Amino acid sequence: MNTPAHPVRRALLLGALGLAAAQGALAVTTLTVASFPSFDESVKLAIPLYKKLHPDVEIKLVSLAYPDHHTAMTTALATGSNLPDVMGLEINYIGKFAESKGLEDLGQPPYNAKQMQKLFHAFAFPQGMDANGAVAAIPADVGPGTLFYRKDILDKAGVTEADLTKSWESFIAASKTVREKTGAYMLTSAADIVNIYIRATIKPGEGLYFDKAGKPQLDTPRFKKAFELAVAARKADIDGKIAPWSNEWREAFRRGSLASQMMGAWLAGHLTDWLNPEAAGQWRAAPLPNGAFASWGGSFYAIPKVGKQKKEAWEFVKFMTTNKEMQTLSFRKMGAYPAIVEAQDKAFLNEPIAYLGGQPARLLWADAAAKIPAMKPDRFDGTALEIMNAALDDVLERGKPVDEALKAANDQLKRRTRR
Asked: Where does it reside (predicted)?
């Protein structure tokens, strides 16, 4: 015999079913974010914060080593398969990916990212744009160029920070003194001085290797000066002839046989965490030589054009790039210098950095970030770098004249790019 359900029991049953349905409906979107170390750490930091704002979104982080990640993303864009919803990109690959036509133009509706441009450091936002002004990627962090040095080693040599920063020539002369009196090198390789010099001497709106019209510039006075400085550094025996990010590089820091490194401000985090924690309190940060300002590094987020969850992906990209709390958290925890100006909290900028001997170095980086010229990315930046490095090897290892090497390199770049 059928009997009607008790009203209270029926209400409880319906309520339980409704709650279960609601809970099931919350976790309906899984966003896949592809990244690389240590940029991926910012995603790990973001997940609990983002979950509070978007309880219905799960973040799946897929991380590969730096070169493997960018190779995988190149293949994914070419084939249209295995694409993430959100793609992390390093600045050296921005030009190539921006011109691939496989990324959403975030400057167009419904994104309208150009309305956010005023939030960012002046040089940062244009770096994510292609030659036609399309916004291929949004900057998440930037790399104000910095000269890191071991104060204790310089003190032993009787060399001051001012000796290093007065000019490029004085940097080499002072470094030679350090080498002679302590045995420590001041450059990882002579290529370091080339890479920082060409970044510090870009005219606003031009590219690293190409002019505003996209023409190769390897045979210009800017590159000639950079190569001449590298030759002088090699003759002074101040470069260790080792590759950055290698085991030898790490060991050179730990042994105290490398007493200086010019890179982005983010290097402070790497030195602190794993490169040279043993020398805490001995390192300092200084401006680049000759009053130069340069961008070294930087990371971006992009959305593939064939993505299936673009609306949700865009919300995540905005959170990672324009949310002050998120940007500040990455700055505090990772040393990733924020892409937006608002995240430069004055109190935090003034805080002493124990690893840098109590120096409030973030003030130095904030000043640099405000003065770095905008740099135009190009899809052939990687090709140009490869050709330039080969030319530098010809000069340093085989004694080829600078003018001859650069002319040959520029001609080769013209052929490769058909420009």
From this structure: Periplasm
Q: What is the pLDDT of residue 99?
A: 87
Q: For the chain, give me the number of helices (H) and strands (E)? A: 17, 8
At residue 379, does pLDDT exceed 60? yes
* Secondary structure class of 108 (helix, strand, coil): coil
- C-beta atoms surrounding 17 within 10 Å: 10
User: CA dist 204 to 37, 133, 212, 254, Å?
Assistant: 30, 15, 9, 38
Rounded Cα–Cα distance for residues 235 and 190 (Å): 10
In sequence order, what are the residues at sequence separation of 6 or more whose Cβ sits closer than 8 angstroms to the Cβ of residue 308? 85
- Is 39 within 8 Å of 86 (Cβ atoms)? no
pLDDT at 8 over 50: no
Determine the average pLDDT of the residues in 292-304: 95
* Cα maximum dimension of the chain: 103
For strands 295-302 and 138-150, give the pairing. antiparallel
At residue 256, φ and ψ (nearest 5 deg) are 75, 20
Give the model's pLDDT for residue 12: 44
The pLDDT confidence band at residue 375, using thresholds 50, 70 and 90, is confident
Contact, 328 vs 338, CB < 8 A?
A: yes
User: What CATH architecture is 27-142+297-350?
Assistant: 3-Layer(aba) Sandwich (3.40)
Q: Measuring CA to CA, which residue among 352, 354, 353, 326 is closest to residue 339?
A: 326
Domain 144-294+378-417 has CATH 2.60.40.3390: no
Predicted confidence at residue 26, as pLDDT, reads 53
Res 14 pLDDT > 60 = no
All residues at 6 or more sequence positions from 199 whose CB lies less than 8 Å from its CB, including other chains: 145, 208, 294, 295, 296, 375
Q: Which residues, at least 6 apart from 282, have a Cβ–Cβ distance to it below 8 Å? A: 150, 151, 152, 153, 357
Determine phi and psi for 103, rounding to 5 degrees.
Answer: -110, 150
